[in-house]
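User: Once you have settled down, look closely at the record that follows, taking as long as you need, and be ready to discuss the fold:
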Amino acid sequence: MPAIRHSSKRKPPPEGFSDIEDDLLVFANKMKDAQNKPPPPGPKHMAQWEIFQIAHQRSRYVYDLYYEKEAISKQLYEWLLKNGYADAMLIAKWKKQGYEKLCCLRCVQTKETNFNSTCICRVPRAQLKEDGDMQCVSCGCRGCASSD
């Protein structure tokens, strides 16, 4: 039988975390408020939209700090991903051409749709025949195609 580890101490954050800690705390408070809010009236799938949007904003914030502004170190960036401050899989998609504006990973998973295709929000608005208000059922996105 393997030995049981009792190390409940987490590794301390790398240098530079204190500079962005306040912004991450704002995202954490928004997330708590969204989780504790009663669900909106209407379809059940709308209840999770705000949570998806906050998680997207937080991941985009970390992505922009590292790749766009180069304001944080690689060590801090990897620590943030490891500790759940950003979605590593979503950021990996953002680095690929054509996925720069992707709203969530559920929109590109073809197995979860009826016709084995991507979500309606991935279709460029110029190609849609109807001018109606389109909105993603998974996350509430109104369009995340790269050409929009």
Summary: The mean pLDDT is 87. The longest helix spans residues 17-36.
